[in-house]
Structures are given as C-alpha cells and as structure tokens.
Known about the structure:
The protein is mainly α. The protein has helices spanning 3-24, 26-31, 35-63, 72-102, 111-139, 144-170, 174-224, 232-236, 239-264, 269-298, 300-330, 335-363.
Amino acid sequence: MKLGEVGLLHLVIVELLVGYIYMMHVDIILSTPAVLVVVPALMSARGNIYGTIVTRLVTRLHLGLSRVPWDARTLSDVRIALLDALTAATAISTMGVVLDYLLGGNMGIYLYPLAYMAVLVSSLFVIPTVLLVVWRSFKRGYAAEYVAVPVATATSDLVTPIAFFLAVRYAADRGAALAVIIISLVVLACGVRELTRNAKFFLENAPATILGSLTSGFGGFLYSTSLYRPLAVASLGGLPGLNALLGALGGIVGSAVSVQLHKKGRVDRVERRRILKAGLQHFALGLSLLSAAILILGGPPAAAAILASGILASPLIMGAAYFASHYSYKRGIDPDNIVVPITTALGDVVGPLAVILLLSAFTHQP
Length: 366
C-alpha cells in the first residue's frame, strides 16, 4: 500500500471515530444544540490552520528553502498558527454563545474556555504529527501534500472533539476555566510577539480561517436542524468523513497548484490534468472506503447519500481550489495561506447540504 493510500485510510478511520464520538455525546448535543455548530467550526479551524502549515512547509521543501521541518520559519509558523487558532476560537465561541442563548442551551460563556482548551490540547498532538509526516514523506520521495494534508485534517478532527467533550464533562467549572484562560493569554502573547516577523501569514490566513470556520459552523447548524429525518443519525456517522475528504481534496489540489505557481509562475495543461487527476483518484479511493464503512454501519440509503454527495461536491471543491490558488497568486497573496480555509469551509457546507437533500429524496420526507 502506498503512503498516500495509508494517509487516506487513516483519515477515513479517524473520521468514522469522530462520527461515533458525536453519537456518544448526543445528550450534550440535545441539551446544548450550539455544540453541533461550535465543534465542527473548531475542527475546521484546526484543519485549516495546520493544513496551511503543511502546504507552506511543502512549498519551502520543494523550493529548497527549508532543510528540516523544525527550522526557524516553521517554528514561527507554529507560533502564528496558535495565535490564529485562539483568535478563531474566540470568534467561534462568540457565535456559539449567541446561538446557545437563542436555542435555549445551558452552556453560555463557558464555551470560551472549552474552545480554548480544545485548541491547546489538540495542538500538542497535531503539530508534531504533521511536521513528522511532511518530513518523512518528502524524504522518501513522496508528494508530501497527498499524505500530510489528510493526516493533518484527520488528526485535528479526532483530537478536537475529544478534548472539547472531555472538557464539557470534567472541566466546566470556574477554576478550570480560569486556568485555561490564563494559559491561553500566555500563548497569545507569544503569538503577538511573532507578528513583527511573520505578520503576512497571520493577516492572510486569520480572516480566511475565521470566515471559513464560521461557515463550517453554519454547515453544522444546517445538519442539526435535520436530525429528525429518518437515517439522519445514521448518516451523521459518515458526515465528518465526507467533510474531511472534501477539505483534504481542496488542500491537495491547492498545494500542488501552489508549488507549480511558485516554481514556474503558471500551471500548464499537462500539469493541470495531472494535479486534478491525482487529487480525484485519492478522493475517490477515500470516498469508496467511507461509503463501504457506512454501508455496514448505517445501511444502504445512508451509504448512498454519502457516496452521491461526495460525487456531486468534488468537482466544485477541485474547481474552487484551482481557481482560488490562481486568483490569490495573481494578487500577490500566498495561495498556501488561504486556499485550505476556503475549500474546507465550502466542503463543510456543501457536504451536509447535499446529504440533507439526498436523504430527503431517499426517504420522501419534505
């Protein structure tokens, strides 16, 4: 089995676990509906930020600008990424507090420290994982973006909800909340100091990440309003996987296009066909594995909904990644900083929406 296929298999397995985690905590979701908005948004932000670190490091490795994965530039990226992540968590939590109030939830301002805890805990696992995977795959001659982007997405998506739900059950008190806020302020201070050297990364990535994560939260909100539909809960187990595969597809295509643009200033027809074909092959394999798992766990209608949704959404994601890379590069913006957040957010809305529409058609529910 090739290394890229291992990365896809890892992503599918992890995202199925994420779906299972959702279903294990249905009681929290029902008592606080805003959770189904906040958690996907946090997952999106984490995947966006560390997917961006992957694409930036891959580009530098291809250009010969980095010799090791933990050089000064990468460490600077990590510090800015933590600042970016905590900034996004603040925006996400604000949206969650408002929705929690409107939907009659019971968590309120505790969403802030819970979101910060999820960010900090997930970073301890995601950062070393993605840097190691990028370096090992690049040294072995593999296209690192085809391996590391799915791994970054999957690892972020697994650790973030685990950290969040554990915090809800065991750390939702004033003492723990105060401790998390103090630690977060220290991390923020380190990130702010780094702005003097790496402001471009933050200024380009943070707005896209915040907008993308809030959009992903909207996708979670759409699905939360449809849980009453037959087979919706069964399909919920496959929805994180579908969203992650779409996000990884956008990251893979965007990273490969970015490398060509940085090397040559353009992408010729042969390279374009190669990039899109390779991205689609990886996505098709991942979608097939995911659909087969949902067929066993959720039944044929749920599996058909996931499969058809992926087929319908993939051309849109590839097109968005390709054209966003070109558009940003022509305007002097590094595609590595914005393409992953854009395509992830798009996938997180298009995926749930397609599943809802197809489930409605399969079950003949209005």
